[in-house]
Design goal:
Elements lengths: L4 H22 L21 H13 L2 H20 L6 E5 L9 H6 L20 H7 L6 H12 L3 E5 L7 H10 L7 E3 L10 H14 L3 E7 L2 H4 L7 E3 L9
Parallel strand pairs: 1-2, 1-4, 2-3, 4-5
Helix pairs in contact: 3-6
Length: 247
């Protein structure tokens, strides 16, 4: 029996629709894009883990050393210019992470401030900062050591003012001498048990006492803003330290 042309066309159209539907069913479904990660609340502080990784990279990449050298060079240029014009010029230096490096314990303590405890596990932590200081093994920071040598060669008296307290004097003096800082006018330390809201509350009056003794402090160098706050210096130079903050 012959089909009409219209019936044949309809059958072909039906077959085409079935084939298209089958192809759609067999085609792999495109995966939906993953949901976007929500942004942190605008007032949330920086993530501590991210900050520690960034601080480690800053130190180990050489950027920290370059920034130290840049600030020390500025201080050195000022000392060269100013020292010849002053009768009794003085340079004030902080110790921790200014004259001497504490990177070994900073890394061992994972950027924590652990004051008590033994240090037998180094280079692993924890290691208490007091015991670390008593060990006297902090190496000199090269840019500051160069600045110290420049000051002494220029006739500038060097004073160390530190937050380390009096019972640490012997170990600190030994550490300074072993690292080449032996020729200094004084090492000023707070009495054992002293408490200050800010390091500046101790350090600024000690600089005033140096001035009262007849010196002109032409440069004050430290790694904390509190090392420099309170005046009593012609110029202040802040070394980089993203590793900890002392009020």
């Amino acid at each position: 029996m012959e089909r009409s042309p219209r019936a044949g066309a309809a059958a072909l159209a039906c077959l085409a629709l079935l084939a298209a539907a089958s192809a759609r069913a067999e085609a792999p479904r495109a995966e939906a894009p993953p949901p976007s990660v929500p942004a942190a609340p605008p007032d949330e502080p920086a993530n501590v883990g991210d900050a520690k990784r960034a601080a480690t990279a800053y130190h180990e990449s050489g950027r920290y050393a370059r920034d130290l050298a840049a600030v020390a060079a500025q201080a050195g240029a000022w000392i060269r210019e100013r020292a010849p014009a002053v009768a009794r010029p003085a340079l004030v230096l902080d110790i921790d992470d200014t004259a001497l490096s504490n990177w070994e314990i900073i890394r061992a303590d994972d950027f924590g401030r652990v004051f008590g405890g033994p240090c037998e596990a180094l280079p692993e932590g924890p290691c208490g900062w007091v015991n670390w200081d008593l060990m006297g093994r902090s190496p000199a920071l090269a840019p500051t050591f160069s600045l110290y040598n420049l000051a002494r060669a220029s006739g500038v008296a060097v004073f160390f003012i530190t937050g380390r307290d009096e019972p640490q004097r012997s170990a600190t003096e030994r550490n300074l001498k072993e690292q080449g800082y032996g020729d200094h006018a004084d090492l000023d330390m707070p009495a054992f048990g002293s408490r200050y809201a800010s390091a500046a509350d101790f350090k600024a009056p000690r600089r005033a006492a140096i001035e009262a003794a007849g010196y002109t402090i032409i440069a004050n160098v430290g790694d904390q803003p509190s090392d420099l706050a309170g005046g009593h210096a012609e110029r202040a130079f802040l070394l980089p330290n993203p590793f900890y903050r002392i009020p």
